[in-house]
Design goal:
By secondary structure, the chain is an all-alpha fold. The protein has two domains: 83 residues, Orthogonal Bundle (Rna Polymerase Sigma Factor, Chain: A); 91 residues, Orthogonal Bundle (Arc Repressor Mutant, subunit A). 74% of the residues lie in helices and 0% in strands. The N and C termini lie far apart (68 Å). The relative contact order is 0.08.
Length: 198
């Protein structure tokens, strides 16, 4: 067998051993991450991302595969927590801006596009509920979390993802209208029907 083929065969064998060890320890990895993020779904996401990004990095392993992957997971959790801190800070800033803007609820409801409400109902039920309670009814993220029985950080993640999902739905449905920001939207049949844009 030529040296290049031997190297390829060795890399493939090493890679399959790494994958086997990671899969065998999935439950322990899940427990490790879940204790740090307080949500099984988020823990699964973090592990999945870490697993995918680690597949091509088997050559970096100098000691045990499991010990190496725990370090990868620890770094992934730290990155997630940093992103959460930034997202929570943005949510707090947004809430503070709303409180100091002085706009009445009637003025705000006049600005909200009627089609956005319909689009929100096409999202996952928990996303639609979070948007309705937090963004429309004005509930604080912590109060929403208590009401539905989840942690405040999970509620922050949920409203962030709900807003992203809604943004994508609005862009899909309203096209160019969504990019320019309708103020008085009647875009039931075509984006060009929006009366005013910012």
């Amino acid at each position: 067998m030529p040296p290049e083929d031997e190297t390829s065969a060795l890399a493939a064998a090493t890679s399959s051993e790494v994958v086997a060890q990671l899969v065998a320890n999935h439950r322990e990895f899940l427990r490790f991450v879940e204790r740090r993020v307080e949500s099984r779904a988020i823990a699964e996401e973090i592990i999945q991302e870490a697993f995918v990004t680690s597949l091509g990095r088997g050559a970096e392993i100098r000691d045990s595969v499991v010990g190496w992957f725990y370090r990868v997971l620890r770094n992934a959790v730290v990155d997630y927590q940093r992103r959460q801190t930034v997202a929570n800070r943005r949510l707090d800033q947004f809430a503070a801006e709303l409180e100091t803007s002085g706009e009445s609820e009637q003025e705000l409801s006049n600005v909200v596009c009627a089609c956005v409400g319909r689009l929100a109902d096409t999202l996952k039920p928990e996303y639609a509920d979070a948007l309705r309670r937090i963004d429309v009814q004005g509930a604080a993220v912590k109060d929403y979390a208590n009401a539905v029985g989840i942690s405040a950080s999970n509620a922050g993640v949920r409203i962030f993802r709900a807003r992203e999902a809604l943004r994508k739905q609005v862009a899909r449905s309203c096209g160019t209208c969504a990019e320019h920001g309708c103020l008085d939207c009647t875009c039931e049949s075509a984006p060009s029907q929006c009366a005013r844009s910012r």
